[in-house]
Amino acid sequence: MNEFLNRLKELDVTGKDVVTLYNEISALAMEQAEKRIAPHAKRNAYYLSIEYLLGRAFFNNLMELGVLDEVSRILSEKGVDIRNFEEIEDAALGNGGLGRLAACFLDSAAALGLPLYGYGIRYKYGLFKQAFQDGRQTEMPDDWQKFGDPWSLRREGEKREIAFADYTVTAVPYDIPIIGERVNVLRLFQAEGSPQAEKISEYLYPADDTEEGKLLRLRQEYFFSAAAIGELTERYAKEHGKKFDDFGACNVIQLNDTHPVIAVAELIRVLTVQYKVSFDRAAAIAKATFNYTNHTVLPEALECWREELVRKILPDIADILVRLQRMQTKELKARGCSAKEIADMAIYRDGIFYMANLAVYMGTAVNGVAALHTEILKNTLFATAYRIFPEKFRNKTNGVTKRRWLMLANPELSGAIDGVIGTAWRDPREGFGALKEHIDALTDDFIAVKETKKRQLFDYIEQKEGVRIPDRFLVYAQVKRLHEYKRQLMTAFAVLELYHAIKDGALSDFHPSVFLFGAKSAPSYRRAKAIIKFINDISALVNNDPATKDVLRVVFVQNYNVSYAEKIVAGTDVSLQVSTAGLEASGTGNMKFMMNGAVTCGTMDGANIEIVEHAGKENNYIFGATVEEIDALKASGYDPNAVLAQNSAHNRAVSALIDGTFSDGGTGEYRELYDALTVGASWHAPDHYFILHDLSSYVHALVQINRDYGNRAMFARKQLQNVANSSFFSSDRTIAEYAADIWHI
Ligand code: 26Q
Description:
Elements: H1 2-10, H2 18-36, E1 44-48, H3 58-64, H4 68-77, H5 97-112, E2 116-121, E3 126-133, E4 136-142, E5 153-154, E6 160-163, E7 168-178, E8 184-192, H6 195-200, H7 211-240, H8 247-250, E9 251-256, H9 262-274, H10 279-289, E10 290-293, E11 304-306, H11 307-313, H12 315-334, H13 339-345, E12 348-349, E13 352-354, H14 355-362, E14 366-368, H15 371-381, H16 383-388, E15 393-395, H17 402-408, H18 411-421, H19 439-465, E16 474-479, H20 488-503, E17 513-518, H21 526-544, E18 552-557, H22 562-571, E19 574-577, H23 589-595, E20 599-602, H24 608-615, E21 621-622, H25 627-636, H26 640-646, H27 648-655, H28 669-678, H29 691-709, H30 712-724, H31 731-743
This protein binds ligand 26Q.
């Protein structure tokens, strides 16, 4: 790295703009990274994911190369503030938890020296850029390459052809080094060759409400899956010959949800057609190679494909899937399964392919992403498969990389921790060990650090949103994709109730607080967009009311992304994780907040359960119905209108949707939200996410937190208990588990 630093010292910066400097410095660092890219190991793991939400590469890579502080110093001698590079936006080739998890996993594997390679798509446009106009979400294309792309290497010599029935496209690899103790590679394929080819890697999640959109999505899935399988089979044949007996011993593939599961059929296709392996052998090799992670139990997110659609562009794949179904039926019959059991697990039934069933049947291991989630997979979603193949099912509770989410996002807290327990915790194999015993020694520093991170966050919010949050406000934050099950609407009602109570003089000792929201809604998700508008309306009301603006603020930040998240998690006191129990598979934002010393105000859902197991219920604020209680409510007939009739505060807050407090501009969206809660819709019961059921315990928890914060030192100790007990939620731990139990690397 000395060579890099010397060249940086010689770099002439005069008259160069930020983008030019960014590209030149990154290119210098990239030379070093490239030299360190490790050769493949004997046995390698591959992560196939349709999303990677990497965040900014610049600071992270300089940190991983061990030169961040030195670069900052050299640049400042030249009169350049390294923070200027924050202007360079990050590539958002993902939309949420699943994509960010993929990024954390690659980071951890590199840190641990494990050979894990990522495969995905190099979208021309990432997730849209969001802005608010009159409180409504607007979407702009995310042209991330306009800043240049100094962190990837185009591998012209390694492109390959991917054939659909109607046309062929070229998959051109772009390699992104993932820097750690070992330098691995994330390989993203770009589709080239014709205008229709280029469409395949143009957008992340193209609208799939038309036949054409659905076909495009299927093409995307096949495109990168087939490119990956093409490479792995070709490399194997070159190194080991064409018999493929040891393919499963040399390669293990993790399917990040079902989006790449078509790779299973593609491997079988390549082995049978190109290498003349028998179908049964090829299927056995595939079974030994693949594993599947499920990330959601929501029925609408479980992929199925109509046979007709698959057959239209991938006829060989359709044949293979039908043949796998026959193989599956035969095996299940031999095991004595009933017709009902066979139907439950069917890969193919009545002209439809069930991709999760394919993944479960063909995968050696099937995992959920938090303990509760894995139990739900075993007892509900995949109950039949669990009865027949119990050995497949295992839990791998998610984690997040402490390098980006603590060391990079919060160097101040990291330094304070060093001061108490030394720097060993920074090692990927270490946790916070003795920190638990030194909470008291760290309390004052922690409070000071939190103030600093809050001020930095408020400065940033002022710059981006044009609103100033007063210093010393208590920060509650709910940042995540906008979805009804995540219940941002419940937080909106809770905030309105607090507002009403403050105005009525019923909350006189309320510590001044801000509620931060950050979320993008899928462009076609009408209710989610209405919720954004509703929260922005509440924000305008509360922030401008002289009676409340000194004690309550609401800010919905625009274009929430990884870089925004880094600032929010560091400056927040209270992490809001309030999904309907049973529906948030894990959550990973909850872990980022925990590591940075926020208490969790949440339901017993996903990884929240494990968070309070580790950090103590007394140091967090759990409220609302448990999964069992939700199930009981569903069975006994839940009536949200009874809740509204009994609780005038709830009724007042919810009525704000329709009583003229706010206007939806005549769209009827607010009435629709109201009706969804009180009447239901053709496809769901009223309030099917149990917002009104949990609202009162939610408001109580928020008020209790506010009271407890009055004793700042005591509250800080709760926050620090969360930091000290967050070792388990490092993705280094998660990846070590995948490596030991599933990948055997
Ligand atoms: C499915 C069918 C058709 C089109 C799109 C999809 C689709 C796309 C994206 C389904 C699901 C996703 C993304 C899911 C996701 O991000 N899940 C989150 O994964 C995190 C990492 O495991 C968990 O922490 C979150 O709880 C979970 O919501």
